[in-house]
Amino acid sequence: MTSRVEIPENLSPITRRGVSRIISEDEFTAMLRRGQPLRLKMGFDPSRPDIHLGHVVGLRKLRQLQDLGHQVILIVGDWTAQIGDPSGRSATRTMLSHAEVLENAESYMRQFFKVVDRDRTQVEWQSQWFGEFTLANVIELTSRFTINQFLHREDFANRYSQNQPIAITEMLYPLMQAYDSVVIESDVEFGGTDQMFNLLVGRELQGMMGQTPQQCFMMPILVGTDGVQKMSKSLGNYVALEEPPQEMYGKLMSLPDNLITSYYEYLTDVPDADIAEMQHSMESETANPMDFKKGLARYITAVFHDADAASAAESHFEKVVQRRDLPDDMPKVSLSDIAELPMNRLLAQTGLASSNAEARRLITQGAVEIIHPNGERISVTPGDAPELRAGDVIRAGRRRFVRLV
RNA sequence: GGAGGGGUGGGUGAGUGGUUAAAGCCACCAGACUGUAAAUCUGGCGCCCUGACGGGCUUCGCAGGUUCGAAUCCUGCCCCCUCCA
User: Fold this and answer.
1) A86, A194, A225, A363: least CB-packed within 10 angstroms?
2) ipTM confidence score
């Protein structure tokens, strides 16, 4: 292995920006300076295939290091996924079939490689080594750690003191992840700050097995679009990578203003100085945060789609959300399907409302109107069957439209 | 093996016989306002009928039962958790 590795003069864009903590930063810096390609480990469980912007912070880090010539090793946790990843709260998770795991893994990688360079990534499946693990191996592995060590881990400690369940497999989980590090001889493992314990177990185990302990590289938690909790699928405050452009742009525009700069910092290559400048002008109210947010939304949409899609999404936003105009494209409904229906039923029928009751609510709240092609807007009442012609548009709220054909 | 706690609407979590379609909070939806799908304010948030007033139906793990009336009481079952040994 004599591939060339670039050693940048200034390491802080790597070790500081978009980084929460490195254990240990000094050792890591020394490794980078040595000029050898590092083995960068990133694992995932193919249990929930959606990648969102929260994951991108780390993926960008991997990409950055790849571009310097380092080697990424992606571990597919097909084994840990099958026993069920217990991190977080609930220990109950249904077992996945082999087919589901394969499908999820494929979907994950499709998204992963939108950021990370596929050609410079080695993919390893856990089953390659755990598939032949024996009970003797398990005992060997578990004998190296104590329950006490594990109970000191923050989330376990909290749960324990609150009489919350802790499954035995949850104890096994970090061990398996640690063993992965040993097998692939990782130099650096990446994860969110919530992964600190697992990463450290890997570091420790490697030491016990006579390897150089890996560095633990932890990324900050990205706050979700609600502005409060960490971005996660289950909280619904996420922006998925496979989000259509308009959705992606729109969701980013729904960020609270105070998140703008951290998103720039973690998810773009905009220089620190420029970000500081934005921060300053927003604080002194000499700039409109909306403009920065639009810039962010455009940038990110362009990364995951392309520049054209991004500007289309932007015009859509300006048109529909800001000016309250009609969008260019909207679902079409055939007049014959809804002929003679009173307004409330009509909304339910066309999918603009989820039920008749919901439709009534929308109507009484003033969310519904009919818009003729000439721009005339007609208000409606729930029971009336309005006169409708092809070309008319029915609007239910800001973002829901249907065109009659 | 034993003792105890618990399963409520998308989430959390009150509610221990009627005033409970079920508090509060979160999420979500709509409206107003605005510099945005930010923030703020207001309203809504099971289903069906009604222009509205209002009416009807279904819901509190599952199945039975008691009662004029049950999320609330009884019986059985299923599931979850904690502790002791």
Assistant:
1) A194
2) 0.85
